[in-house]
Amino acid sequence: QKEVEQDPGPLSVPEGAIVSLNCTYSNSAFQYFMWYRQYSRKGPELLMYTYSSGNKEDGRFTAQVDKSSKYISLFIRDSQPSDSATYLCAMIFNAGGTSYGKLTFGQGTILTVHP
Amino acid sequence: GAGVSQSPSNKVTEKGKDVELRCDPISGHTALYWYRQSLGQGLEFLIYFQGNSAPDKSGLPSDRFSAERTGGSVSTLTIQRTQQEDSAVYLCASSRQGIQETQYFGPGTRLLVL
């Protein structure tokens, strides 16, 4: 079993739909949570970064973290064709004495938003 | 300002050959990471450099893989005696020091071992 599980999809939605992307994790030592977006043949770019349970909103994007359930989500409202990409969840341990941000990624979900 | 750059963009090599992949981090970033992205395994951590500290090599898959970072800036990932299973996209990222600092990724080097 992988430390971080993410449904690879693919997910196809019409323009304007609300998209929900999810990841589960098994180790409660994960304390920092990120969502990256990766366009074809590009490196991942950071979308959202949270480190506590609850919601964080940025424009059309909302990140949700539930540490008790070890579950994180990314919601995209009013999805656009330009949102078509692979979405990767990523997490960082916060172990005592460790001060760097090695990322553990989910498999990535391929999203297509069609006009 | 310039982002993270990587070279070459693509590399095709024959099984058994050595390859070198280069990463130029964002100026002023002291932390540098190498990751590998493959179809079967997703995106995996390989190695981490922070300033003058000893690198964390815990993600390197075998002793055929090595990396160095000269002068706290440019990094080179070397794969010796390449195997077909080494075919993947090799991504470099850099950040400021600190666990909460954003990692900025380069475009990657696509390696194909024939």
Helix content of chain B: under 10%
Order of helices and strands of chain B, N to C? EEEEEEEEEE
**Rg over alpha carbons of chain A:** 14 Å
Largest sheet of chain B: 6 strands, mixed
How widely separated are the two ends of chain A? 37 Å
Describe the structure in your own words.
The complex is a heterodimer of chains A (115) and B (114). Chain A is mainly beta. Chain A is built from no helices and eleven strands. In chain A, the strands form two sheets. In chain A, strands 2, 4, 5, 9, 10 and 11 form a six-stranded mixed β-sheet that branches. A five-stranded antiparallel β-sheet of chain A has the order 1-3-8-7-6, with no helix packed on it. The model of chain A has no long low-confidence stretch (mean pLDDT 91). Chain B contains no helices and ten strands. In chain B, β4 and β5 (42-50) form a beta hairpin. The radius of gyration of chain B is 13 Å and the shape is globular. At the A-B interface, β5, β9 and β10 of A face β4, β5, β8 and β9 of B.
Question: How are the elements arranged and paired?
Answer:
The complex is a heterodimer of chains A (115) and B (114).
Chain A: E1 4-6, E2 11-14, E3 19-25, E4 30-38, E5 45-50, E6 54-58, E7 61-66, E8 71-76, E9 85-93, E10 104-105, E11 109-114
Parallel strand pairs in A: 2-11
Antiparallel strand pairs in A: 1-3, 3-8, 4-5, 4-9, 6-7, 7-8, 9-10, 9-11
Chain B: E1 5-7, E2 10-13, E3 19-24, E4 31-38, E5 42-50, E6 65-69, E7 75-79, E8 88-95, E9 104-105, E10 109-113
Parallel strand pairs in B: 2-10
Antiparallel strand pairs in B: 1-3, 3-7, 4-5, 4-8, 6-7, 8-9, 8-10
